[in-house]
Amino acid sequence: MRAKYSIIFFVVVVTAISFYPGKRISAQQILPPLKEVFKKDFLIGTALNSMQIYEKDAGPVKLIPQQFNAVTAENVMKAAEIHPQWNVYQFEMADKLMDYAARYRMKVNGHTLVWHSQLPVFVQHMKDADSVMRFFVDHINTVVGRYKGRIYSWDVVNEALEEDGTLRRSIFLETLGEDYIVNAFRLAQKADPKAKLYYNDYNIEQPLKRAGVIALVKKIQAAGVRIDGIGIQGHWRYDAVPLQYIEESIRAFSSLGLETMITELDLSVLPGPWESNEADINKTARWNERMNPWPDALPDTVAQIQAKAYASLFILLLKYNQQVSRITFWGVNDGQSWLNDWPIKGRTNYPLLFDRIFLPKHAFYSVIETRRK
Ligand code: XIL
Fold it and tell me: How far apart, in whole angstroms, are the C-alpha atoms of residue 222 and residue 181?
């Protein structure tokens, strides 16, 4: 009888230990850190949400500084959050992010100064050029000025191009005219001369849109204004990473004297509702069951294909480690990825290197392996 109870006790204890979150954390402690593995190649970044900035989410508290040496605010530096009303700025969260990054010696990429999405309500319906100009100048000067000398880089302009490479008909183009982009870089450069200045967008590895970026860069450079690099967002599908176009883009940007970054990397495993692979947050689709094939777990076969896709991408980026300066994942783990709610709300996606309990997936190890080969 005693022996029976001892066995039951043993089983209960072992089971309890294996589910105890502390064990996961200690498993993470012995993981090879991405930031060390790729130290000679590029910065390895992640996007942080507010729970993570405040270190309220126990899961990734140790994992984030252990794995990453660069951070981007997922939302808290966007105009709607940091500049909610005329003459009202809310810097609390962004300040916290800066403190967090300083504490763990991480580089901060400011995301983002000029973008048509996540604009404050008071700007969204502005029609007259004077008001938009006042907002534009004040916003750039105030936000860049606040973090002057402390921030590593800024996504000065985000998503200013249409898929065909022409300028997006955003509020900025419509009211300020096409010079707004050169002006944004000029203002940012003046407000913090040492910060690196980037243009950031999705699908710009695609030839037509890439040609649009090249034209933009030439215009900025011809005006005698500085631009340091191009951020390719990298919201791709696990079975369709456009390797050839990425390679051509790195070469093209480099021949203009620019660094390239992958700034918002995630490889979605879910079906897309449209033919094209756009990442416009304003375009959404309706939920249906077919669009959410794996609500409970990611099938291992899919996880393996995703791991291969991540490896092929890293092998390519390693070939260009002189031209590529940073790779940032758009989130830490699958559970907090924006792709669970975009473009369709309430799905279960698995786009990152860590699973919902912050354990490394096949993709994590396949990425690490690319440097060991
Ligand atoms: C996304 C965030 O991840 C979400 O939390 C938010 O609700 C919408 O924006 N391109 C960008 C990012 O430049 O800022 C977007 O981030 C994703 C697409």
Answer: 13
The total number of structural domains in the chain stands at 1
Does 38 contact ligand 1 (Cβ within 6 A)?
A: no
Q: Is 119 within a domain? A: yes
Catalytic residue among 74, 81, 159, 205: 159
Tens-level pLDDT at each residue, the chain (373 residues): 455 555 454 444 444 444 444 444 455 558 999 999 999 999 999 999 999 999 998 999 999 999 999 999 999 999 999 999 999 999 999 999 999 999 999 999 999 999 999 999 999 999 899 999 999 999 999 999 999 999 999 999 999 999 999 999 999 999 999 999 999 999 999 999 999 999 999 999 999 999 999 999 999 999 999 999 999 999 999 999 999 999 999 999 999 999 999 999 999 999 998 878 888 999 898 888 889 999 999 999 999 999 999 999 999 999 999 999 999 999 999 999 999 999 999 999 999 999 999 999 999 999 999 998 6
178 is a catalytic site residue = no
Nearest-atom index, ligand 1, CA of 111: 14
| Within a domain: 6 | no
- Domain hosting 336: range is 36-280+287-370
Atom of ligand 1 nearest to the CA of 263: 13
- 329: three-class secondary structure by DSSP: strand
Structure tokens at 357: 């309990």
Report which of 202, 206, 234 is spatially closest to residue 352, judged by C-alpha positions.
234
User: Cβ contacts of residue 354 below 8 Å, gap of 6+?
Assistant: 60, 63, 332, 333, 334, 360, 361, 364
pTM of the model: 0.93
For 369, the enclosing helix (H) or strand (E) is helix 362-372
CATH code: domain of residue 166: 3.20.20.80
Cβ partners under 8 Å of residue 6, min gap 6: none
Query: What distance in angstroms lies between residue 110's CA and the mean position of ligand 1's atoms?
Result: 13
Indicate whether 50 belongs to any domain: yes
Q: Alpha-carbon distance 310 to 239, whole Å? A: 10
Q: Collapse the DSSP code of 235 into the 3-class scheme (helix H, G, I; strand E, B; otherwise coil) and give the result.
A: strand
- Say whether 74 is catalytic: no
Asked whether residue 31 is domain-assigned, the answer is: no
